[in-house]
Amino acid sequence: MPIASVRGVEINYQVLGERGPWVALQPGGRRGLDGVKLLAEKLAEAGNRVLIYDRRNCGASGIAFEGNSENEVWVEDLHALLTQLDAAPAFIGGSSSGCRLALLFALRHPAAARGLLLWRVTGGAFAAQRLVQNYYTQYIDMACTGGMAAVCDSEHFREVVAANPGNRVRLMGFSVDQFIAAMERWRQSFNAGADNPVLGLSPAELRSMTMPACIVPGTDRTHPRHVGQAAHRLLPNAEYHEVVTEDHPDQDTAIEAWEPKEGLLAAIFIDFLRRRQRH
Asked: Which domain holds residue 167?
């Protein structure tokens, strides 16, 4: 796959499709591009050019811990990558953390966001507590007790090193103090938006986004259905569709419920993209 140098970091990416409007997709968590590849293939088959990529610190992309907010860093990386590819404005889509990235991208770069594809929208006290632990606190604890070697041996960073062996050298190049300081900055930024109806963005910020949006809610404790409904109410030009119809209040992510629904999700997004292209 091609590698782009984006703001000093190697970003692994792939473009599917040769013509049509640009779409950029992000998976949830810190997953790599494979998390949205099947959906991207379906959108490309329908006549779109779809960018999928590994965000920094994910998949086969490079390691760097800069800035005061992880999502803001990811947003600026995506904007720079789209600019390099002459792919803006694009429809920006994402699931869970990728959904937050898409929304923040639209807030910071509205002229580059032709529309939004949002599924499994995150929010609520359970999500905020679970995710801050998963994304930041556990790595602070690892570094405190086992140094950077323990961080390298964590499940996520072990996968990142396997995909790009040079990442172990990069990780070990950080002092424990540097790494912990970065995680603490990112944790503080994450917590600052934890009480909003949609995690990370205020109601006023959502109301300011006038680009068309297609929202598919989640159905579990991290992505409750009512959070997607709140996003639909707050975004001025949003439409709402349900893919997984049963709720899973006892499950953290219910990801297995989405796998058989990939075709329906793709069909909803393809229809949205076709209608928006005619406007």
From this structure: 128-183
